[in-house]
Design a protein that fits this description.
It is built from three helices and two strands. With 83 residues, the protein is mostly helical. A hairpin with an 8-residue loop joins strand 1 and strand 2.
Length: 83
């Protein structure tokens, strides 16, 4: 729920800024939202994550996967029954 709320706020801010720019102009990579007396300021930036294809590395280079892999953090996982 928090992620969907954050995403909708980000989309609304980006849409407001896009309306203020000339037609066809790209959005700036960093957007600063000024704070007020009752809330802090925020910085919204475009982030492009880098992901590793671990399934492919495990399949094509199991030696590299075994050398660099480490156990993750134990955690509870809730799934729908039968899934």
């Amino acid at each position: 729920m928090v992620r969907s709320l954050t995403a909708s706020i980000e989309a609304a801010v980006a849409a407001d800024i896009q309306r203020a720019l000339p037609a066809g102009a790209p959005l700036p990579p960093v957007i600063t939202i000024a704070g007020t007396a009752i809330r802090p300021g925020y910085t919204m930036r475009w982030v492009t994550p880098v992901l590793l294809d671990t399934k492919r590395i495990r399949k094509e280079r199991p030696d590299i996967f075994a050398y660099y892999s480490k156990p993750g953090t134990d955690h509870w996982e809730l799934r729908k029954a039968g899934a």
